[in-house]
Each structure stands twice: as C-alpha cells, then as structure tokens.
Amino acid sequence: MKIAFVQMNCVFGAVDRNLFQASQLMDSKEADLYVLPELFNTGYQFTRKDELNSLAETIPSGLTCQMLLKIAARKDVYIVAGLAENADGKFYNSSVLIGPRGYISTYRKIHLFDDEKLWFLPGDMPFRAVQIGDLKLGLLICFDWIFPEAMRSLALDGANIICHSANLVLPYCQDAMVTRCLENFIFAVTANRIGAENRGNKSLQFTGKSQITAPDGTILVRGSSSAQEVGVAEIDPLLAWDKNITGRNHLFNDRRPELYKLR
Ligand code: ACM
C-alpha cells in the first residue's frame, strides 16, 4: 500500500483556505492513506477562548470532518487529520481517522505541549490501535512522540502504522522517530507543518521535514523544511507483524517489566 504525509503551511483561522490547500495537496499525489498535520484546519496558536469556541468543531458533524469524508469517499482513501474538537463545550486537540465509507475514530492528544495546556483538556481515552481490514493504525499527535510509552502502547495493541499528525517546533522528533520505529518495529508517518505563525506576542517556526520511517529505522521519505509537499512511500504494512529482531530476541516478549521502574 501507499502511505503519505501531507506537509503544509496553515494560516490561523482560515479554515476554508486550509481545507482547500489540503485537498489540492492530496489530489497532487496518489496514496491509500494520507496523514495531515496537527490542527491543520485552524492553525496552532489559540490566544482567546472565544477563538476556540468559534473554530473548534464537533466530530464528525463539523465542516472539516464533512469535507474530509467527501474527499475520502471520492478518492477511496483513508485520511488522518488533526483538528480542534468541541465535545459539548470540552475542547481537545484531536485527530480523526476517516475512511472511504465514513468516519472511523477519534484520538484526543494525551500529552499536551506548552500553551496547549491553556486551551485544551488532555486526552481522556487510552491508546488504542484501530483495525482497518487486515492492518491496524495507531494515532499520535506531535509531542506524544517524546513519551516512548505512547508508541509502545499502540505497538503492543497491534498497530502496524503510526499516523503522527504534528506541528513540531523542537528539532528532535524526526531523528527520534528512527529509534521509536526500530524499538517497536513499526511504520510511522509524521506529517508536520512548515512556516511561521505569529499570534499574540509569540512567533513559532514549524520545522517541516515530515517523514515516513520503516520498522528497521530506515527513513523512506523526508520532506524539506520549507515547502508544501506530499511524500509517499510504498510499503508492506504486514512487515511490522514480526517482532523477532534475532532468532532469540523478540521485542515484546523479551521485555522484563517486573524489573522496570514504571512510576
Ligand atoms: C507540539 O506538540 N505541537 C509541539
């Protein structure tokens, strides 16, 4: 199958424009699964509660999910995309998984980064991989990457591919994903933003370099730091089933949790 990151520049508050950009980018290259950045439709830096009130959407009845549902049906593809969720007045930094036959699932970011803690509640549901035909997808959002437990939980739940929607501002993730993928023997698609966002008294520069990483840590595709682009890799997701690293070493069965300090 073909998996893709959609690396784009998002403009804060310009939902129609951002949706149009994302749609055009997805139309520019064929894939079976597209991963879009975190908060791709709204932009990243909220500065007031009323902005969140007006831009966050209900899932899946809001405008963004409805647009993504149409695109997924028209193209016969799966899409993972980050957006601000309004769940009865509770706000989450979420991502959705949408398929050709409809809405599938939502992940609410568990590890909030910096000022996100001013606006969003942390995710309230455990990490779960989602079955899609004969493979399983795991959703993560940006800063989740720094906690090895996040990807490990999804790998232990059987995920073959991690769909990682990001708005990265620190320089570490792309290289770290090599280890994250190797230690779980799993594929990952990190879809990052580019460009700068100036809001209030803060300016953030997003690092681009979106990446598709293979279970052995090979970087299959890496984007540039400054261009909108779609990166595609053709993979066999079932490769991620076999966790034997040598004839005598299995990544999960060889763990010794009884000797680990977990708290
Ligand atoms: C991040 O979690 N958006 C850095």
Q: Which descriptors apply to this entry?
A:
single chain; 263 residues; alpha/beta; six-stranded mixed β-sheet; binds acetamide
CATH class: Alpha Beta
The portion of residues forming beta strands comes to 25-35%
Average pLDDT: 97
Q: Please write the string of helix (H) and strand (E) elements.
A: EHEHHEEEHEEHEHEEEEEEEE
Helix content: 10-25%
Count of the domains: 1
Termini, distance in Å? 39 Å
**Structural class by sheet pairing and helices:** alpha/beta
The number of helical runs is 6
The hetero molecules present are: acetamide
- Within the CATH hierarchy, at the fold level, what is the topology? Nitrilase/N-carbamoyl-D-aminoacid amidohydrolase
What is the approximate shape?
globular
- Name given to the CATH homologous superfamily: Carbon-nitrogen hydrolase
CATH architectural group: 4-Layer Sandwich
Largest sheet: 6 strands, mixed
Uncertain ranges = none
Q: Would you count the extended β strands for me?
A: 16
Q: State Rg.
A: 17 Å
Write out the strand line-up for the largest beta sheet, numbering strands in chain order: 5-4-3-2-1-14
What does this structure look like?
- The chain has 6 helices and 16 strands.
- By secondary structure, the chain is of the alpha/beta class.
- It has a single domain, classed as Carbon-nitrogen hydrolase (Nitrilase/N-carbamoyl-D-aminoacid amidohydrolase), CATH 3.60.110.
- The protein has a 6-stranded mixed beta sheet.
- Strand 4 (90-99) and strand 5 form a beta hairpin.
- The chain is globular and about 55 Å long.
- It starts with a strand and ends in a 13-residue tail after the last strand.
- The relative contact order is 0.16.
- The model has no long low-confidence stretch (mean pLDDT 97).
- It binds acetamide.
- Acetamide (ACM) is lined by residues 38, 113, 142-143, 167-169.
